Amino acid sequence: MADVGKLTRRGFLIGTSGALLAFAAACSSDGDGGSASAGTGATIGNKYGETQVPLDPQRVVSVGYNDQDALLALGSTPVGVFDWYGNYPNAVWPWAQGLLAGATPAIIGSANTGIDVEKVAATGPDLIVGTYSGLTKDQYNKLSALAPTVAQPKEFADYGVPWQDQTRIIGEALGKQDKAKELVASVEKQFTDVAAANPAFAGKTVIVGALKGPGQFGVYGPEDPKVRFFTELGFVNPPVTQQITTTNFAPISTEQLSLADADLLVWYAGGGYGDKLRAELDKTPVYQELNVVKDGRTIILEDEAAEAMTWSTVLSLPYALEKIPPRIAPLLTK
C-alpha cells in the first residue's frame, strides 16, 4: 500500500488515545496483577503448528503488519518491527508513539520488500510474533530457526485475526494474559457504548470496498478489520458478500458493482486514493444506478480515522470510534 501523508491532527489523535495509552502504561508496571510469570512458557497454536514460547521474553520482534501496537499496549517494546505504511518513525503511528519511550526498534521489513530474515536475526530475538500477517510456511520455518515464532492463527484467514484475538494471543506469548484481558474489555466497552448511542446501526447491511486499479474495484471480506469495525457496531454483512469474496479482499468486475446495494456502502481510500476513486466512480454508470448511491448512503473514508480503522488495534480503534460513527449516522436517517 502506498504511504499516506502525516496526520493533520497528530496532537489531537495522540490526545484522544491518551487514556488508553495511560492505561496500557499503568498495566506495564511491575506491580500489575498480570505478573510476568503468569502463563509464561505456554504452547500457542498457529497456522503451521504449535510454538512453545519462552519464559519472560525480552527481545521481541514484530513481523506482523500491526503487531507492534499490541506489544506496546502490553508493555513490551519490540526490538524490531515491520513497516506496513505511513512513513512514521520506527514504523509506529502517533496513537502508539508515546509508548516507545524513546526506543528505536529496527525495521526488519516492509510491505514493499517483505520480511528480511537477516535483519530479524541481527536483532537477536528471543520471540517473534506475526499474528496479523500472511506468513508462508517457508518464512515461518526460517523465522522459527531464529526464535520461537507465533504466526497467524489457523482459525482465521491471513491478515484476518480480530484485534481481540491478536491482543490475547500476544498477551499469552508475553505472559500477560490479565493485561490483555483488561485492554480488550476497555475497547469493547467503547464499541458497546457507541453502538448503544446509535441504535440505527443495528441490523443494517454494510459493504466495504476500495479501488483496485483503473476501472476495477474490490470488496473486503467479512474477516477484514475494516468490515469488522462496522459489524462490531451492529452492522451485518449481506449474504451477497459471500458471493463476491471469501478472502480478505477480492477484485470485482464493474458489473458486480450491482451486487453492492447495501444499506451502507463504505469506500476505503487511504494512501491518497480518494480523488482517483471518485473519478472512477463518477464515470461508472452501473454504480450511479445503485439505490444506495441515489439515496446518499455512501461514504469515502480517506483520512487519519480511516487509517486508525484499518490498523484496527487495541491502540488505534479508540480514535476511529470517536471519528467515524458520527459521519455515518446521518446517512442512515436519509
Short description:
This is Iron complex transport system substrate-binding protein. The protein is α/β, with parallel strands linked by helices. It is 37% helix and 16% strand.
Keywords for this entry:
globular; single chain; Rossmann fold; Iron complex transport system substrate-binding protein; alpha/beta; signal; five-stranded mixed β-sheet; six-stranded mixed β-sheet; about 325 residues
Order of helices and strands: HHEEEHEHEEHEHEHHEEHHEEHHHEHHH
CA-based gyration radius = 20 Å
Name the shape in a single word. Answer: globular
Structural classification: alpha/beta
Low-confidence stretches: 1-39
Strand order of the largest sheet: 6-5-4-3-7-8
CATH architecture of the largest domain: 3-Layer(aba) Sandwich
Oligomer: single chain
**DSSP strand count:** 13
Number of discrete helical segments: 16
**CATH topology name of the largest domain:** Rossmann fold
Portion of residues in beta strands equals 15-25%
Instruction: Name the average pLDDT.
Output: 87
Q: The biggest beta sheet, please?
A: 6 strands, mixed
Question: Could you explain the architecture of this structure?
Answer:
It is found in: Cell envelope. Belongs to the bacterial solute-binding protein 8 family. With 334 residues, the protein is an alpha/beta fold. The chain folds into 2 domains: 16-188, Nitrogenase molybdenum iron protein domain (Rossmann fold, 3-Layer(aba) Sandwich), CATH 3.40.50; 198-302, Rossmann fold (3-Layer(aba) Sandwich), CATH 3.40.50.1980. Helices cover 37% and strands 16% of the residues. The chain contains 16 helices and 13 strands. It has helices at 10-16, 18-27, 67-73, 94-97, 117-122, 137-144, 163-174, 177-197, 225-231, 240-244, 274-282, 285-288, 291-294, 304-311, 317-323, 325-328, and strands at 43-46, 49-52, 60-62, 80-83, 106-110, 114-115, 127-129, 149-150, 206-213, 216-220, 249-252, 264-268, 298-301. The strands form 3 sheets. A 6-stranded mixed β-sheet has the order 6-5-4-3-7-8. It has a 5-stranded mixed β-sheet with strand order 11-10-9-12-13. α6 links the parallel β7 and β8. The longest helix has 21 residues, at 177-197. The model is unreliable at 1-39 (pLDDT under 50).
